[in-house]
Amino acid sequence: MKNIQKVAFIGNYLPRQCGIATFTTDICESFSSINPGVQCFAVPITDIEEGYQYPERVRFEIKEQVLDSYKAAADFLNLNDVDIVCLQHEYGIFGGIAGGHILSLLRNLKMPVVTTLHTILENPSVQQRRVMDELLAISDYVVVMSRKGVEILSHVYKTPTEKVRLILHGIPDVPFIDPSFYKDKYGVEGKTVLLTFGLLAPNKGIEFALRALPDIIKKYPDTVYLVAGVTHPNLLRHEGEKYRLSLQLLANELGVAGNVIFHNKFVSIEELKELIVLADIYLTPYLVESQITSGTLAYSFGSGKAVISTPFWHAKELLEEGRGMLVPFGDSEAIARSTIGLLGNEVERHSMRKSAYLLGREMTWDKVARSYGSLFEEARQKRPAVMQNKNPMRPLNEQPAILPEIKLDHLVRMTDFIGIFQHARHNVPNFSEGYCTDDNSRALILTVMLENLGTINPLRLGDLTSRFLGFVRYSWDAKKLRFRNFLSFQRNWVDPGFSEDNHGRAVWALGTCIGRSRNQGFSQMAAEIFEQALTPVSTFSSPRAWAFALIGADEYQQRFPGDLGARNRVETLAADLMRLYEENSSVEWNWFEQSLSYDNAMLPHALMVAGRALANENMLQSGIEALQWLTAVQTSPRGHFQPVGTDRIFERGQSKPVFDQQPIEAYSTISACLEAYRITKDQHWYDEAAKAFQWFLGANDLGIPLYEPANGGCYDGLHVDRVNRNQGAESTLAFMLSLAEMTDITNIIESFKEPLPS
Questions:
Q1: Which of 459, 546, 635, 690 is deepest in the core (most CB within 10 A)?
Q2: What pTM value is reported for the model?
Q3: In a domain, 399, yes or no
Q4: What total of structural domains would you count in the chain?
Q5: Residue span of the structural domain in which 73 resides
Q6: Which string of b and e fits 366-386 if b means at least 16 CB within 10 Å?
Q7: Kind of pairing, strands 707-708 and 713-714?
Q8: Cα torsion angle, 84, 90, 94, 99, sign
């Protein structure tokens, strides 16, 4: 190929068992076969500690959850003078929030990038949209495998049409032969074979095909349903063979076990070709409409199979104009009717097969690989041979804050099997003070954030999360519909009275757990009480309780945006907070109350979040205005972060108390400023967050760090002449939450000079 000597394919790779691995292997091997003069190598994503026995084609492997591994991969590709990188993108195969770790690799590449999108979401979460926006901005070209993909990129992501290429999913080239050819080899000679293959998971809808079998067998007793493929490895790790066993039980209940074959094997491409050939009808009873591509459907369709499918996006396009048959989602009767109809109409079935096979000749891997080759040449010509460094050296004031390593030593020391202790004497837990729900809520938020960052061993992190979530759940008083707060070391509740702020913070933690945790058990447990806990907050008088709950509800709605009940409560709380701001603010005092006390930045943070969620520009701008005023108040004459002290209340018209300064103020400011940065894409807000973070590291009135690098703990506050040497839960969690949020934003922004892509 002209000007191309080396091509690297990034994505999962065989023998890892998944569709992306099969696709990456197929496109890499096919491209190499028709371009013997080009050096091709693979860079797979490895998701298990023991790794895989990769073939020689693999030159470098990326550890899924290790951020530095992505950066090292970029260095490797640059050092080896790779001409083109072809990335296979699917959110779930990369580490970080919404798979954001891959961006740290792409930002540092010096060569053109052609990205194949295996998932394109019409309604992405905020995190998914942020990752996709930057991915689209970095990529020189993006490949989609359906017209629907082109449409979504244009209408939702505003991607220029000249940047998008439609290349159909590749398929193996198999002859158009009679299904009986291989049936005797697999022991199904004389049978009518219905086939579904691929990794087993509940969204495949196989149970609906099973429920269709009794009616089909009544008409055609020699029918067998062959389900080929292993359980999805991720599902297998978390749930074992629960789904497969449920299907087997269902087959027994329906009396069709003698007509069902589970071929529990991740088949080779040669065996897969034979299984496809022997099928009389291919079934894809999938349950998710938004599936933009399906390799299993493409393989079967292109091999000339009669296909009955639910109308997910890819199927609707491939099977139009009589090339297949569509049935409603979750409709076993429709599957039975369509199958019986096709089996009884040989003319229609063979016409369908022929139409599919003819289009499939345009989808064979050699033709798909040639299309990719042409696109690689375009990308190379678009960029000069000497590439400009995407990350040139910048002066100190344009560089990100230097972040410490995330260390859990002190957090673990402060935690027993009940939860996290409230206080410490120096760096030793103070058992006599017991536990509180406030701190366990903060700890739950932290561990869920760390789960998304992917920098901590998931087993260790899951153990901690279960304790903090268990504590918050135990604190719920189902009769009073309130959270208790203080638990003694002797396991007795000793609450002096109900705390609205504690309740709001628990709602925040539960909403974050539901919205962000990938552990189904954790999110389900949190969901058991979330709605009940959110409902009474509108009767509270504390604006901070409103703010905590608003942020928690926003986290929840990132996952369940269609929950109208949650949205109504957001509207009510946001209106109350907005009313407070309008009643109390003026030109010189842009605030919600006539005083500044504690956790101050949470109020504008919540108003911004609500304004964004409700598309209320006045609310959003009021939140930004209040945060702008607060950060000015919290800036010392020398320019460093100086939070409002807690030795007295800062009343309007009085001088600002300077001591005692609390870590919780730094964290709430950092979190609010980063939210403002994400919303406005204004560099100013990242700088404000970085300034507040530096307070922990010594950029404060005394020039003394509060962070303890030896154990990851944080001192309890800054006095007029010294730091409070105790390392309690609130201060340590404030620092670790700050570090987690700063690490997250550092991982996802493209640069610290230019804003995020729109």
A1: 546
A2: 0.67
A3: no
A4: 3
A5: 6-170+366-382
A6: ebbbbbbbebbbebbeebeee
A7: antiparallel
A8: positive
